[in-house]
Amino acid sequence: MCMLLPVPVLGGVVSGDSGGSQETSGLRFKRMLARDSSPDAFLCDAPGKHLAQLVFRSENSASLWSLKAIHAMCEMEQSRIRSQAQFQDLCQQHVRGEAEGASRGGCCPSWSLGNYLAVLTNASCCLSLTSHQVSESLNLLRKCALHYHEGHLVEACVERPKHGGCSSVPSRCKQSRVVFQILHYLVDKDFLGPQTVEYQIPTLKYSLLFLPVDKGEHMMEIYMKSLEGRDLTYNNTTITGMDFGIKQKLFRYYLARDSIYPVLAVVSLLFTMALYLHSLFIVALSVIAIAGSLLTSYFFYKVAFRLTFFPLVNLSAALFLLGSCSNQVFIFADFWNQQLSQSPSASLEKRVNRALQEVGYLILASGLTSSAAFFSGYLSSITAIRCFSVYLGTASFISSILALVWLPCSFILRERYTEASSASVAVQGWKPCCSKNGGGFWDTSSRKRCLFTLGQKLRELKRGISDTSNLLFLKILPCGVVKFRYIWVCWFAVLAAGGTYMSCIEPCMKLPTLDSSVAKLFRSSHPFERYDAEYRHMFMFERQRNGEDKPVTLMLVWGVKPTDNGDHFNPRSNGSLVLDPDFNMSHPDAQVWLRDLCGRVQNKSFYSPPSPEDKDVTTDNICLVEELIQWVSVRRCSESDDSPNLCCNDIPFPYTPSVFENCLSMMLAERYAEGHLAHSGGLHFQPDGRVAALVLAFKTTYLYSFNFSRTSLFYREILTWFNREISGAPHGLEKGWFISQLSLFDLQHVLSSETLAVAGFSVAITFALLLLTTWNIPLSIYGTVAVGGSVFVTISLLVLLEWQLSGIEALFISSAAGLSVDFVANYCISYTLAPHSDKIGKVAHSTKRMGCPVAIVSGAFFSMGIIMLPSTVLLFRKLGIFLFLVKCVACGFATFFFQSLCCFFGPQKNCGKITLPCFSDYNDGALNSCSAAEPGSPSASAVNGAFGRSRMRRSYDKEAGGYLYPDPQRQQRQKQTAAGGGGGRGPEQYELQPLAYRLSDSFENSTCTSKLSNQPSVLSDEIEYCRGEVGRNSMDGESEEMCSHQNKTSQQPPALQTSSPYKENPLRPVGVTREDAAKDKLLCNTCRGQSGGVTHWSNTTFSSSSSMEDTIISHTLETIDQTSLSKDDQTTEDSQQPCSDRGRLSSPSQSSCEGLEDSNETCLSDIEPGPSNTRQNEAEQEFQLQPGHLNGKRDTLRLSLKDPVYQTSKGRNSQSEEAVILPNSKPDLPDVWIKRDGQREDTC
């Protein structure tokens, strides 16, 4: 009774007559022959595709055709499946015969290899099989396998053993369906195949088991309780594949469960933004802005574009937008914080104006370039990619536009809230920790001390992180980019070339081997995916069901236009049939051409004649006209019938159109009446009886395959032959086309050809948009090369990860350029706006400003990708891998490759720039108005001068402050205006300022030497000349009282090389009170008491990650603004020698790379007498400013240079006064000579 009992539990011991099994095996084999013809007494029915399936594989690559493996498969089925309570309710019941009362006898046994061998050897059950019975069964299968693979052994041979090819099959192979079903359903195609049938011990790699349960969602509970996440291995035999028909339902379950991974990835990015910005308010507004962009894009997607199909992958646009939005927020925050530290007294309107001019320009340029790159996916023929490109491109564009609005507003609100909160705290006052207040838990001194200590530790940690960040991004990174630029260019060029070769030539990405209806939803190791991807092709019944190894049928079509008039953005829209009004096959010429076509097709090597099995089904009608001629020729005309339209042998060929159509209709009706089955080919008629379409079909010698290369050869051969045939077709048949089983090949062809084309087009679009935003051809080329290298290196990494090129992969690749261009655009625009003339300085500037935001964003995306790796859903897993790969690779190419290219070939000044006269004039006028100094803002001239320098070319013909030799007429006008304004003084002319303007900022200036000194120049390379003309009121407010101690016996102090000794103090207050004057006196006494040398009163610098003024003034300067004391102070303090006021200047240059630097100072000489009364001052005001003079009371100044004066004017002229020589920091520029007597000396 073992055959009808359930199989024992896993690990149980069979208690049957195993001891006598060897002795009775011969008798049982004979009984098997007697009752083998009725195996259905044990097996309920034949297996089929509607049943749930399990695939077994040996763990150590051994053969499953062994007694141990067969027993293991039976025991695993019992323990994993049949032991579940739900199985008894779902399984097919075994119905006993009438002699047994027609009662249900429990669940049917599974269609497994062990049960089939038990039937074949007449064993009691699967676990009672012996090694001898297994060997005898193998010998029987070896004899029958060859006939099966030849196509002679079919299932019908059991009922008709003498029919057709069944007559050559041995009788033992066709006594029952057991042998056929074992070879057809249960073993893989390579077991006992034509190549392995002669092996003494053939290897069975895979074996299939059919459960007596139909596929469907009811199997979900059994899978989740006993199979999902469990160890499916027993005795070196494992369940490696499944098909329960629950793949879609399981995908929805995994999608809901694994949605935690993208949520955690988003949270990690938002946490990074909060740490960087120190503001949850800005982070919350960023999330709202992204959500608003997505919703607005959805509105345009549905309403404006009228797209109905919204694929699930469109939701991944949120992660894409997070990257671009975080990049924009980081850059704007850096620039805003930099302005706050640089010019805290600047008005809010001015800061917003500058932020929108520079950072807004960068955001708009980056957003437009990314959006255009995303829109390039519209060129793809795959519907999901086109929909995704439209949605993501629209969302990216909207997000960039909204960023120009919400970013300034959010920072304004945060600043006002911070000021209000700080003011409220100041009003409340501060209570010492020792004060007693029992009102709260934290109000005791010990707890407050703990909080204070904790806060101090946190501040120290923050300071350490900030210092490390400044060292890394403001020192090491710019220096590493510039100093190792040769290595970076060579290394990344090799990477780009190798990535392009791997992506486009060899090995490329693997094409899909599954039909488009079978989507890949889980990771490749999942048993459901393994069955679809691997094991579906390993068993003969699946291969035949999918058409594998069967001849491909080719159909030639006339009368229907190959037009898709459906919705191209909706894959569910198939459109309607469009008939060809010019189709005519009844014309005599068309009849002759169709008749000759039959012979030409049959003579081709790809033509396969119909087999005897196809005689009942019309599968070959390529000779339809030839058959019509034969059918008409055998019909004799009736003498009593005078109708000329009757189809009989007296009618000559070609027939008249009406006779041809009538005879065709009669022949087809007669064949249908005889029992010939119709098929897709043949004639199609309109309701009025006219022929609407013609389909001629025939089989080819090509066997259907998922291999793209083989199918491509077949397709090209058929296409070449058909084009040649159709070129000679008569009128009415010249619009024919052919179709075959090429749906998978079409998908493979689109993916292989269009994916790289779309990627290349997106890179080309990147060049166009970079050129449009920068108007610089070299920068656009370098940026395009960097983006292209990033895209193809990313694709090559996906190739190395063995990704298969399906729709999802093609979608990601089409968006790679849009994700890569953000970083390149950042560096490109920053390079364009850099306030330096040399390319090294521009590279250093852009690296300092953009290095930290780019690195932070790429690092955040790397973390996001790592977080999404454990996901079971393939979409989340691949999305995470792609995001961190494309962002990290883009960061490397933008930071090192693009910047290194700019170090070598970067444009300087207007090199490679496309200039349009109308735009250049407009830009100059607009920026001039923005670069003027704001009254009341001490640092306005420095800040705006820096910005103006970066955005336009300075002109010395517009601003008096920019004159090396001032315009006398302009100075006269200024003098008259000053005299008419109540005696106020106009702005003084500082003839040394153009020296600072001509200097350049680069890492190589540390090695520049003066032509005179041959020593390293200490002239600040980052001092920028501020061209904005300062208002007269501002200058009057900054004028100070001055006195100097004249000591004619003292010698002139050694000169100190400096940049601009008259550069105004950006942090100096507008007005000077009497208290300030008193402090100035005390400070002057302290200075005068020193014996000599230079006193550094302030050496304070600030630090910022991306400072505009930092790139302009990187070295800390301390300037001395000298003014005269009031008349009252002079008369009341005759015994004291007046001193000049030292400007208390802490460098405003928030130096982002230089840190603390030595100060360059100019001091007041104490040897020459200065003005002593008011008349002298008035005379100086009336004095005509002359080029080269020190302008009145400026004669009291002496320049302190760190390097000594190397030459005097005694050897050059007869004058007795010495001249100060200012060595130029650039070897190719002349040094400057300044006469002490007020006379100008030409530069040498």
Q: How many H/I helices?
A: 36
Rg (C-alpha, Å): 45 Å
Spatial separation of the terminal alpha carbons = 119 Å
Helical coverage, percent range: 40-55%
Mean pLDDT: 74
Low-confidence stretches: 3-37, 97-103, 433-439, 919-1217, 1236-1244
The assigned structural class equals alpha+beta
What profile does the largest beta sheet have? Answer: 5 strands, antiparallel
What is the 3D form? globular
Beta content comes to 5-15%
Query: How many strands appear in the DSSP assignment?
Result: 15
Task: Give structural notes.
With 1244 residues, the protein is an alpha+beta fold. It is 48% helix and 6% strand. Helix 9 packs antiparallel against helix 26. The N and C termini lie far apart (119 Å). The model is unreliable at 3-37, 97-103, 433-439, 919-1217 and 1236-1244 (pLDDT under 50).
Descriptors for this entry?
1244 residues, alpha+beta, five-stranded antiparallel beta sheet, 15 strands, 6% strand, disordered N terminus, disordered C terminus
Give the topology, please.
Elements: H1 21-35, E1 51-58, H2 67-82, H3 85-90, E2 93-95, E3 104-107, H4 113-121, H5 131-149, H6 178-186, E4 206-214, H7 220-226, E5 233-234, E6 237-243, H8 247-258, H9 260-277, H10 280-304, H11 317-342, H12 348-375, H13 383-428, H14 445-483, H15 485-504, H16 527-533, H17 540-545, E7 551-558, H18 588-602, E8 607-608, H19 624-633, H20 657-673, E9 682-685, E10 691-703, H21 708-726, E11 737-739, H22 743-774, H23 777-800, H24 807-814, H25 816-833, H26 839-868, H27 874-905, H28 917-931, H29 940-951, H30 968-980, H31 993-998, H32 1032-1038, H33 1074-1089, H34 1108-1112, E12 1117-1118, H35 1127-1132, E13 1160-1161, H36 1174-1182, E14 1219-1222, E15 1232-1235
Parallel strand pairs: 12-13
Antiparallel strand pairs: 1-4, 1-6, 2-3, 5-6, 7-10, 7-11, 8-10, 9-10, 14-15
Helix pairs in contact: 4-6, 9-11, 9-26, 10-11, 10-13, 11-12, 11-13, 11-26, 12-13, 12-22, 12-25, 13-24, 14-26, 15-23, 15-27, 22-23, 22-24, 22-25, 23-25, 23-27, 25-26, 25-27, 26-27, 28-29
